[in-house]
Design goal:
globular; 28% helix; 9-stranded mixed beta sheet
């Protein structure tokens, strides 16, 4: 069995990463998902959070923040499709804090259980993840 596989992290604007890796940990809907070469086929929803990757050369890249999306896994390739993704060094902390304030306001004004409340919760989680990751970098 191969010990590495191809990982693609893609947004509508760009390809964030396309490289040989030995492991990926992604924020799944029901918890963190760990992927190694030869993983069983899988298609799952991702939530806002940090994608941690160990490249084939042994370097760890753990600084890709996604807004959520989907992940498809085959034995040879993993593809993460995210609406938005950025590396920690790209995060504008002032902008992230402003986005957090907007998300909190949206949530306060939304009816419980509505589509707007769900959107606000996702925006809130994404902003909190960006701030936390930026401060821990």
């Amino acid at each position: 069995m191969a010990s590495q596989y191809t990982l693609d992290v893609v947004t509508p604007e760009r390809i964030m990463l396309s490289d040989q890796v030995v492991s990926t940990v992604a924020p799944g809907y029901e918890g963190q998902l760990g992927i190694l070469a030869g993983h069983a086929p899988l298609m799952t929803e991702l939530v806002p959070g940090e994608v941690r990757v160990t490249l084939a050369d042994g370097r760890t890249t753990s600084h890709i923040i996604i807004s959520g999306g989907f992940m498809e896994v085959t034995a040879e390739r993993t593809t993460i499709l995210a609406d938005f993704a950025e590396r920690i060094d790209e995060i504008d902390i002032t902008r992230a804090e402003a986005d957090l304030a907007v998300a909190r306001q949206m949530l306060a004004e939304a009816d419980a259980g509505s589509a707007q409340a769900a959107e606000a919760k996702q925006a809130l989680a994404h902003a909190e993840t960006r701030i936390r990751a930026s401060r821990n970098a």
